[in-house]
Design a protein that fits this description.
By secondary structure, the protein is mainly beta. The chain is 10% helix and 28% strand. It is built from two helices and nine strands. The protein has helices at 79-85, 146-154; strands at residues 2-3, 45-50, 54-59, 74-75, 88-94, 99-104, 109-113, 127-128, 138-144. The strands form three sheets. The chain has a four-stranded antiparallel sheet with strand order 5-2-3-8, with no helix packed on it. It starts with a strand and ends with a helix. 22% of the residues are buried.
Length: 155
């Protein structure tokens, strides 16, 4: 349940045959679920969703790293909420007017508008994004930009 944000300039340029650079410190039980870029001139909200169907949107400005890239990161969601609502399964930047898709383990694909989820602070519990059957879980989320929505509706 951690997130880190830093400018691209802190990443060293490396050759093809190198091991790469550490982007953030992970515990042995942690794994990276999502990585994306954000335009430095814009401040989108970050949407996170748990396997239990809960999620929240928080301004990306709440995740700025002041100490570089090799850090643990900020809490994305309240730890008690993670225990109750499942682990994080996805994150994406969203802008007003965007929609997003929620994919479930039973093969359901649900589309919802980002404005249906209120903006909250970084360590809050979040809200129910999708209602699920008892043996169904959210597996992924994906953003649909407002421009893509207009293209779909026209076509």
């Amino acid at each position: 349940g951690q997130c880190v944000r830093y400018p691209e300039a802190v990443l060293p340029i490396q050759g093809r045959a190198t091991r790469g650079s550490r982007s953030m410190k992970l515990d042995s039980s942690d794994s990276l679920i999502q990585m994306f870029t954000i335009d430095k001139d814009k401040t989108p909200d970050i949407l996170v969703v748990t396997s239990g169907g809960h999620g929240k949107r928080t301004s990306s400005s709440e995740y700025k790293s002041l100490s570089g890239r090799n850090v643990k990161g900020y809490s994305v969601i309240n730890k008690k909420a993670l225990e109750k609502n499942g682990l994080l399964v996805g994150a994406c930047p969203i802008y007003d007017g965007d929609s997003f898709l929620v994919l479930t383990s039973k093969g359901n694909v649900l589309r919802t508008n980002s404005t249906n989820i209120r903006e909250t602070g970084r360590t809050t519990n979040g809200v129910r994004v999708v209602s699920l059957d008892q043996d169904n879980k959210v597996t992924r989320i994906s953003r649909i930009a407002e421009k893509e929505i207009d293209d779909i509706e026209e076509g």
